[in-house]
Amino acid sequence: MSQIAAENGAINQEKAPHQLTAADRCDACGAQAYIRVVVNNSELLFCAHHGRKHQEKLAAIAESWHDESSRLLEDQRS
């Protein structure tokens, strides 16, 4: 699910354009990205750890927030 930051800082969910793959890497550390954030028409990719770390600050300015970190739990059940 994608999430859109509203003017009040709340985050609303919306359909994602495409699923992140193993080729998508975190801009902070290079790990597999599970979170895509669009800010000023630029895409930022984060692993679950760095996405949570920066979520509070980015939510106020993000145009969209797409979080697939729940896939980490699915992988553990397989």
Distance from first to last alpha carbon: 21 Å
Low-confidence stretches: 4-8
Radius of gyration, in angstroms, nearest whole number: 12 Å
Query: What order do the SSEs take from the amino end to the carboxyl end, as H and E?
Result: EEEEHEH
**Helix amount, in percent?**
10-25%
Form type? globular
Structural class: alpha+beta
The number of helical segments is 2
**β-sheet strand percentage:** 25-35%
Strand order of the largest sheet: 2-1-5-3-4
Largest sheet geometry: 5 strands, antiparallel
Q: Provide the residue-averaged pLDDT.
A: 83
- The overall strand count is 5
How is the secondary structure organized here?
Blueprint: E1 2-5, E2 11-14, E3 35-39, E4 42-46, H1 48-59, E5 64-67, H2 71-77
Domain DUF7455: 20-72
Organism: Cryobacterium sinapicolor
Protein name: DUF7455 domain-containing protein
Summarize the structure in short.
The chain has 78 residues and is of the alpha+beta class. It contains two helices and five strands; from the N terminus they run ββββαβα. Strands 2-1-5-3-4 form a five-stranded antiparallel beta sheet.
Primary descriptors:
28% strand; DUF7455; five-stranded antiparallel beta sheet; DUF7455 domain-containing protein; alpha+beta
Architecture overview:
The chain has helices spanning 48-59, 71-77, and strands spanning 2-5, 11-14, 35-39, 42-46, 64-67. The longest helix has 12 residues, at 48-59. Strand 3 (35-39) and strand 4 (42-46) form a beta hairpin. The chain is built from two helices and five strands. 24% of the residues lie in helices and 28% in strands. With 78 residues, the chain is α+β, with helices and mostly antiparallel strands. The model is unreliable at 4-8 (pLDDT under 50). A five-stranded antiparallel sheet has the order 2-1-5-3-4.
